[in-house]
Amino acid sequence: MGTEGDTSGKRRRKYSPPVVASVAAAVLLAGGGGAYWAATAGGGSSGPAAEERAVPPPPLALDDDGGAGAGGSSGPPPGIAVGEPDPNGGGTRYRAEGKLPDGPAGAPVYTAGRAPTAADVAALARALGVKGEPRKADGVWTVGSGAEPTLQVGADAPGDWTYALHGIAGGKPCVHPPGAGPEKDRSDDAPACPSFRDSHDRPGGSDPAAARPVSEERARAAARPVLAALGLGDAKVDASRVFGAVRTVAADPVLGGLPTYGRQTVLRVGADGRVTDGAGAVVAPVKGAEYPLVGAARALDELNRRAGKAGVRIGGCATPVPADEGAGSGPGAAASGPGSPPCAGGTLPRASVPIRGATFALAARSVGGRPALVPSWLFEAAVPGGGKATVTVVEPAVDPKYLTSARGTRPAPGGGPGRAVPAQVTSYSADGTRLTLHFWGGVCSDYAASAPAQSTAAVTVKVTGVEREPGRPCVLAARRFDRKVALDRPLDGRKVVDVVTGEPVPRG
Fold it and tell me: What is the pTM of this model?
């Protein structure tokens, strides 16, 4: 948290944008969703003295309109559910309890960079102890399968990854030993479910109820090889959080000496000292254009400006007042009369929330449809009635005149095809030459199934979902789907293999 006079390790100085001298070489500089040309400075040139002129960075297109300047919208972003607080501060006015820090005069934006390669995925898999070779299908790299350790990495930059020690959901089900867990019929190839029973390495001995989390030192040691493989050896690491017998190790990258916010790598360590699951990004972000910044006080003014001068408009009664009833009393009395609605709306006064400090960091945002880290101020806002509790409110630190909205360039809802995303098949049923695939998916996507390969031994199937209306907010809800696939001949004992996991799909 920032304190009075805190500048996050940097004294604020006058911002000096790149200088262009009269030289021959030119370099293409890209970042923040745009590109521009700047000549490299050189010495010893003959002729008149070089005339300096500043080359401004390109406009920074924030997809969520946060901090947009004159060209941006001042209203709330789309997709806020009824009753959900506006993250842009609608109806709230923030006030600083003390002096806010100035921060640096300039800082770069970092973009997602390149897509992960098979070598990147293999290196992370080795650090996690996942066996197998990376295989790519429908935009996802996968190493491992079934109930064994499994790593999945998105094929697009920056390579978002997830890891599970005991396999991914929908894989081959495990079987508990006799007397432990639900009883199931065990097949020959079904793996045993993980258990701490009779483990001498586990704190508390063989009693599962006596599990205790490992120490912070042991958790850090378990996470160290993974963080090293990701190039996070100098990251800010916190291992203080505990949930039951699991300790969480969180690593925030440090880029160019600046802290980050929202691009955290998380690893969870079980009571036996092994990493049980984790998530993060494989490829390090790339430094882009540098932007002039504003201090925390100016950023707070911008946050309050976007919240608007008026309070939050609210409705009247929750339910209609029956005709000829309730006249002269109740919430709708003031609006009673011929042609008047039973309840009139009102305006709530803007709540005043104290800001107890501010910290400068590179915060995760979406810029031009791509992940990015944008210079930002992290305000610690007091929770009303919460004592010393605070919540973090993020506001761009980039000078508002360089900010613009990307809404105009984003696909209109239904205006273009969404990205195809694979879905994992959980089971199947067969009827002659018709195969029905069962899977779980989101309610906002359309799904199609196919059998890209059919041999005498197996039928390989895949299910792909495409967002129905890209760019339109949608409820994150899942349901079970069925899709049919035509076979060249009846299944007749052939295995059904999911292209996502590379594993046979159970009949069900």
Answer: 0.60
